[in-house]
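Chains adopt folds. We examine one example:
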Amino acid sequence: MEEQTLIDTYHEMVRPLYAYVSRRCGPDRGLAEDVTQETWLRAVVAWKKNGLPENPLAWLRTVARNLLINYYRRAPVLSLEALPPGWEERVLSNGTDGDAPRLMETMNWGLARLRPGQARLIEAFHLDGRKIAEIASDLGISERAVEGRLRRARLKLRKKLEPRVGSGEEPS
């Protein structure tokens, strides 16, 4: 692969890649920058050996997603008992207040423990802001099927997160 092709691809892809990664890191810019950089290092090695893939951005996103999953699987479990009521909705809506770093870490910790299809569905809808119709078209299934899968994925995420942050219900 020619050096100029690699440079041109970098200039074209670095912003969309960083946007993808940073949505999954919340306000942790250092992590977003590290993952973006590591993704590009792996791309340079792989692409020099195997050539440019058909869809470079999809390739980069897959590598970045796997790096983040590995990071969050190894992340130490923090005490998140102090999360405010309504934590679940704020995690799924990618909250941006003072709790955002912990909320985003919690979300990613949970996503790393779901099956890939479930995690990708939640990511597409909640983190990437994609519409149900668009997801259905990409998957080749009905919108109703996407809604059902998304509902089940959210329930599974909730079950994964409850031991870490509690059920969110008021004690009686």
Helices lie at 3-25, 29-50, 56-74, 87-92, 100-111, 116-127, 132-139, 143-165. The CA atoms of residues 26 and 139 lie 27 Å apart. The longest helix spans residues 3-25. The two ends are 65 Å apart (CA to CA).
